[in-house]
Every structure is written in structure tokens, then in C-alpha cells.
Design goal:
The protein is mainly alpha-helical. The chain is built from six helices and no strands. Helix 1 runs antiparallel to helix 2.
Length: about 120
């Protein structure tokens, strides 16, 4: 991570980079094969059935389609939106947040993005 990093609308509330997300790529490119791959992978990771039709997302903070989880179930997104934060990097409770730790505990890049607000 360089010091020239600039926060963009593609950075999710949790600090993940939506431009790197295969669900977003599948949506933007209308790529059904990639949707199938992502649905299969996410189903295995989350131990729930995720169908290719659910793989439509333009980005966490960008207007447009969202996966069902991101739209209405992601506790990080719901909290940050509810508090009117651009990202969790604006929250004074970020360092001790158990919700955010679901992502940042195993993704140092996401945490670094949030700390660079």
C-alpha cells in the first residue's frame, strides 16, 4: 500500500476493494460463467445455497444492484449506513468493532484502506 492511496467510491464500508470483487466484475461484464463460479465458491464458503442469479452487485457504496447479503444482511454495511459514515474508517469504535473484524482480522489491506481515510 502506498501513501498515495485515495479513497474512492469503490472501497466498501469495510475497506474491501469492490473493483477487485468477482461479483462486481460479473455484473459489470454481464458474465454468467463468472456468476456461476462465484455462486459455487460463495456457497461452499458460507455453507448456504447461493445461485448465479444472486450474483449481481455494482459495489457496496455505489447505487445499483447488490447481492442479497450486501443489500440487507451485511452487519458492517447496515451499521455504517445507519450512522451515515462514508466507511468504517470514520467510526471512533473501528479498532474494537467485532463486526468489522469479520473482514479486517484476515485482510490487512482492507484495514489499511480504512485507516488512511
Amino acid at each position: 500500500m502506498t501513501s498515495s492511496f485515495i479513497m474512492t467510491e469503490f472501497i466498501a464500508y469495510c475497506g474491501l476493494d469492490c473493483e477487485q470483487c468477482e461479483a462486481r466484475r460479473a455484473t459489470i461484464n454481464n458474465d454468467d460463467r463468472l456468476r456461476e463460479k462465484v455462486a459455487r465458491h460463495w456457497s461452499e464458503l458460507n455453507h448456504v445455497e447461493i445461485t448465479p442469479e444472486m450474483i449481481n452487485c455494482t459495489g457496496c457504496r455505489i447505487a445499483g444492484a447488490k447481492t442479497p447479503f450486501c443489500e440487507s444482511m451485511c452487519p458492517i454495511r447496515l451499521c455504517a449506513k445507519g450512522r451515515n459514515y462514508a466507511t468504517c474508517g470514520s467510526c471512533a469504535e473501528m479498532d474494537g468493532c467485532k463486526k468489522l473484524a469479520m473482514v479486517t482480522s484476515n485482510n490487512a489491506e482492507a484495514l489499511n484502506r480504512l485507516k488512511q481515510k
